[in-house]
Amino acid sequence: MDKFSYFRRPHRLPAVNERARIHLPPVAVLGLGRFGMGVSLELAKHGVEVLGVDGDEKMVQECAPLLTQTVTADCTDMETLKQLGIDQMQYVVLGIGTDLESSILVASNLVDLEIPHIWAKADSDAHAKILSRMGIDHVVRPELDTGRRVAHLLGGSFQDFTAFAEDLGMVKMPPPRALVDSNCDGDSLMGKYGLYVASIHYEDDGWGPWDEERRFNGADMVVFAGALASLEAFARR
Question: Mean of the per-residue pLDDT values for the chain?
Fold first, then answer.
């Protein structure tokens, strides 16, 4: 008896700009909640073939027109994973987070199938620790990451923020008043503020590399990188 209650392959997916393409082999996303769906749609948007699997047929139907393949199936069943060809995949994203038991069962199956690259969502420190001890190399905490991002955006100085480590980040912001209409090179910026410019959006030229010969304009938008404490202190100048 067929274990899959729903399967669909859309006739045509949107064309992808080759410059924006993510060059990956097909990716399986198990669990199409907010996280799994977000990963799936972003991969598909950039030209990656995505197999989306979830036990909720409504979720599957919602994603079906946008992904390469979608299936309603029980991801905790090893035989089901094999029938879906998950054992042949190089990249699998485990998007099940709120159901701890299901997450652990699926993670165990993926480890047993020796999937080379497994990315798994965790909803707590304990969950993340369990997944890591099971052999999942890439454990992500989307709610925690979003919380950190919002905390640094609340003050209004940064237009965008991302952290790369516990104390290292990158922000998008206008140049502080202390730098507007002043000359500042990379050495002095690093020496005085402990930061460097990753990119800059000039009012008349768009995004590009920083030209140290040009003065900062209040209408410019700059991507600064450095220690989080340095970025916060810099924004107050």
Answer: 88
Residue 156 has pLDDT above 70, yes or no: yes
Report the range out of 2-11, 101-110, 227-236 with the highest average pLDDT. 101-110
Read out DSSP for 1-32? ----SEEE--S-PPP--GGG------EEEE--
DSSP output for the chain: ----SEEE--S-PPP--GGG------EEEE--SHHHHHHHHHHHHTT--EEEEES-HHHHHHHGGGSSEEEE--TT-HHHHHHTTGGG-SEEEE---S-HHHHHHHHHHHHHTT-SEEEEE-SSHHHHHHHHHTT-SEEE-HHHHHHHHHHHHTTSS-SEEEEEETTEEEEEEPPPTTTBT----HHHHHHHHSEEEEEEEETTTEEE---TTSPB-TT-EEEEEE-HHHHHHHHT-
The pTM for the full model equals 0.77
